[in-house]
Amino acid sequence: MNKPATSVTATTVSPRTRSIAQITVLFLILILSIILLFANFAYLNTQSNYDKQYIGHAGELRVLSQRIAKNATEAATGKALAFKLLSDARNDFERRWGYLRQGDKSTGLPPAPPTVRDEMESVRRDWENLRKNTDTILASEQTVLSLHQVAATLAETVPQLQVEYEKVVEILLQSGAPANQVAVAQRQLLLAERILGSVNTVLAGDDAAAQAADAFGRDAGRFGQVLEGMLSGNAAIQVTRVEDADARARLAEIAELFQFVAGSVDEILETSPELFRVREAAGNIFSLSQTLLDEASHLANGFENLAGGRTLDTVGGYALGLLALASIILIGLVMVRTTNRQLRETAEKNERNQQAIMRLLDEIEELADGDLTVTVSVTEDFTGAIADSINYSVDQLRDLVATINHSAVQVAAAVQDTQNTARQLAKASEHQAEQISEASEAVGDMVESIDRVSAHAYESAKVAERSVAIANKGNEVVHNTINGMDNIREQIQDTAKRIKRLGESSQEIGDIVSLIDDIADQTNILALNAAIQASLAGEAGRGFAVVADEVQRLAERSSSATRQIEALVRTIQADTNEAVISMEQTTAEVVRGARLAQDAGVALAEIEGVSQNLADLIHSISDAAQLQTSSAGQISHTMAVIQQITAQTSAGSGATADSIRHLARMASEMRRSVSGFTLPPPAEPK
């Protein structure tokens, strides 16, 4: 039986291995073709992007060639913005031309391929010539702009010269000036017109520009020489001096305007050759730009034709795609053939397994009825392992049923004991809950008492704080009183000093009054002597006697006034001394009052300190009472939690008793559930 089975296995393994090998080879061919296809696609895509960049740069070169020509022409006419645009276009052309010749590292663009070498060479020659002329224009930017600025200023100045000379001609005609002076002034108008025309011809840059520059120099020199002759006279050129004041004033204005024209002659003559070169370069650029446009167009066409030269790469991509498609089809055919063969083998194997399963089901039918004495037959089929496992499970199930029966008996006995214990625990929990409830009520009373103590302590603390505040305020009032008394004492002392100085001053006044009294006495004596001398002189001294009498009466009045002042001074001195004594007594009283106020301040400070200490002690008592209140509250909360836990324990004990009763019922049900199994008789002890 074993040998035929081995030969069948050998014949089925060989086609399977051959199919796997075929599929592996086809998969490798498919993967390789896909890789090559993607590589070819990436190459074509990269080259297409390069072609787009080449064509874009070539197209920009065509646009820039015309932009350079336009800006070069405008720059030659003196437009400042055109120089910047010309420089930007020139640099942009050079940059893009560099991308085509050397590639662009930023985008990975390589240099242009050799297939467009001829077109590149043609563009290079034309661009070098055009760039050289462009650089010539850019190098002369300042000269061109300066020359056109001078020309613009001349275009404004020369018409003003003509207007002023027309006024000079009118003045000369009205004043009856000589005819030759009027003719000279009229010729100056023509010279001014020729000067302006020469400047415009120079700026035009045509073939007559060089002659126009020379003519501008000659005409400007002749104009200045004649103008100077009309102001100062010049016999060499037969120009007489103009005498009319109005005409000379106009000529002076003309001379001031002509200074710019005279100063511009050398600049125009020196820079006109450079302007001619710029004009020539602009003309060359205009001619070369069309040629460069054509060459750039040929170059763009060459880049557009690059894609047509890659036909081989495109055909290779199609071939790789067909190869990948063929590989997929062959893989599908091989897999279908292999799948059909495996389906046939699986059907045969399922038939054999079905027969073995039916045999196994027939043998375990009695086991389904609870007969654990059954033993299943073990065969070579795939059900053999199942039969062996069933036999092992039946053995384990026998042991399990026996163990359940034994455990159910033991659980029933243990449940009875546990139920009794749970009942006792529930009664103890109820008693404990009652005790905890009484303790919680006692703690609540204690919390209320402590709260009242804390409230009284808090009120006492507020009273103590108000006492401290009042003592502090009284201390401040005493200090302010002391400071006020000190100020009063200082003011009284200053007043006493002033009164003393007043007494000293009154003493000095007394001395002065004594001196005046002495003078009055001497004057009285002198008046008496004068009266005596006047009486001795007779009639001659009568007038002097009258004066002597007046002097004597004046001396007597002075003496009387002096005695009155002396009496007042003595009164002032007496009052001053009394005021000084009164001030000193007042100062002493103020000092005593200040000392008493200081003593009161010290007493208030001590009261403030004692009140502060009392307030601190009361605060401490209040804080301690609040802390005790908090602790008592926590104890009350803890007792409540314990009471809840006890209640939960009591409830849990009841629930445990119920669970134990339920467990007893479950044990009984478990015994009834396993009673349907049939066990073999127990083995007899040996």
UniProtKB/TrEMBL annotation:
For whether the record's keyword set contains Transmembrane helix, the answer is yes
Domain (HAMP): residue spans on this chain: 351-402
Its subcellular locations are: Cell membrane
InterPro entries under this entry? Answer: HAMP_dom, MCPsignal_dom, NarX-like_N
Give a yes or no for keyword Transmembrane helix in this entry.
yes
Q: Which GO terms describe its cellular component?
A: plasma membrane
First-listed, main subcellular location of the protein, grouped into a coarse class: membrane
Q: Which UniProt keywords apply?
A: Cell membrane, Membrane, Methylation, Transducer, Transmembrane, Transmembrane helix
Which residue windows are coiled coil? none
Q: Kindly give the SMART domains that the UniProt entry links to this protein.
A: MA
Q: Which SUPFAM superfamilies match?
A: Methyl-accepting chemotaxis protein (MCP) signaling domain
What protein family does this chain belong to?
Answer: Belongs to the methyl-accepting chemotaxis (MCP) protein family.
Name of the protein described by the UniProt record: Chemotaxis protein
Native source organism of the sequence: Pseudomonas putida S13.1.2
